[in-house]
## 1
Amino acid sequence: MLKRTEGIVLKNSLFGEADLIVTYLTRDYGLLKVFAKSPRKIKSRFGSSLEPLTYSNISFMGKEDANLPRLTQSDIIKTFHTLRDDFKRLLNVSEMLELSLKFMPEREPHFAVFKLLLGTLTKLEPDSENALYFLYYKIKFLEISGYAPRLDMCGRCGTTSYNGSCNGHNNFYVSHGSIICEKCIRDREGSIRLSDGTVRLYNSLIKWRLSNINRVKAPAYMLSEIGQVINSHVAYILGRSKQLRKENFAVGITP
Ligand SMILES: [Zn+2]
């Protein structure tokens, strides 16, 4: 059966000599892998529509349970090529795309994530030096997926972290995925000390809309502290799920 949707290419990988497996984040099917026949043989518009970040109308064919449906058509809506052409930008954007690839199950529709990625790329294209967009995307992605770090309350006793000032609630514990208040702290190992401003900025960012981000000016140290929280949090979750997979394999359970 032929199906149509819109998709943004997250990655493509070589399959055989001339074919590609293309992974999309789609509007209607979530993360979707499709097989593209011979796009590399001729330098075609079809071939260039499969470059990472390209946003297209796509058609694919395959049975409901087919592992790898075949991509039959892709018509470019936007290439976002300026985000691909510069190495530093590409690196930052790749980190954004990696989150979908690592956290999202295949073929489970997630319109909010699709909208977030499309919106962020659209905002980033003319304003790619604004590092806040990259952070905003990661925070919102984790929030939508239910994995966002909590900087608004103590992960042990639930006391809220700030009402103007942070009252010493500024230690983020990677293994808790949250801050822990002064009363509950037992061991400072594995914690990241954050400034008051960083905690406030994070708690605001998580509530703000994408359209407001260009009005925010944040000092570099805050961006760097939030970046550190997000990156260590993501690495911890991924490391733990890998460990779980390994343990499940060890006792013969298929994850
Ligand atoms: Zn506490």
## 2
Amino acid sequence: MDAFTDIRLDGVSYAFGTHTVLNQIDLHIPAGAVVALLGPSGCGKSTLLRLLAGLAQPLLGTITFGNRLVAKAGWALPPESRDIGMVFQDYALWPHMTVEDNVAFPLKMRNVPRAQRETRVAAALERVGLGEFAKRKPSGLSGGQQQRVALARAIVAEPRVLLFDEPLSNLDSELRESLCRDMAVLLRQLGITAVYVTHDRGEAGIIADRIVHLSAGRVDAIRSVTSSSGEIA
Ligand SMILES: Nc1ncnc2c1ncn2[C@@H]1O[C@H](COP(=O)(O)OP(=O)(O)OP(=O)(O)O)[C@@H](O)[C@H]1O
Ligand SMILES: [Mg+2]
């Protein structure tokens, strides 16, 4: 399997009952690109991300990661078989586990031996600037630190695809911008294909190489971000 992968959606539609939420989405995300999905509340951003994660099945169309079909009408490869990392708005850390055990979890699921696990967890925590916090419980961390733990957990197994759903929405604006810049640097270093859902244009401009505007379940426009200052072409 390739280390990094492109993502292709062909004619992807999704509906809740009679309510069409995504309407024939065609989208190609090149390997290693960081794409922001931007659009107003209710336009289908989280639904599209859930389809990429394997948490929902398309009604129509196909999704491929590299040359691997991961979803088609009525079928979806489950999340644990997709080699993805995910970060959500609410961190979704296990409160009873220490920081290092939270981060180690994806490696345990993949049966990585303990010694290798410890090295990789330590490296992931260093990457997100939390090397000293390994033994703490999430309740002993700030919101920004908890989200860094979730980020370390998402990258520790070196997935092919990273998916983010409004990961900074619970943080205050100053912290949001600094963590967004840190994540942008980290994503460039890792080179992993990433899809980042947000309704914040500023965040999208900082994090992404290109911005996909969704509107009422359709791709409205795709724009390249032309400079590190977040200017949109
Ligand atoms: N479980 C559900 N049952 C029925 N309709 C749903 C369900 N979840 C979402 N929807 C509807 O699907 C549409 C798209 O929802 P989605 O969560 O993808 O939007 P979003 O772009 O992520 O919005 P937000 O920015 O508020 O998170 C909305 O109209 C929403 O009301
Ligand atoms: Mg959403």
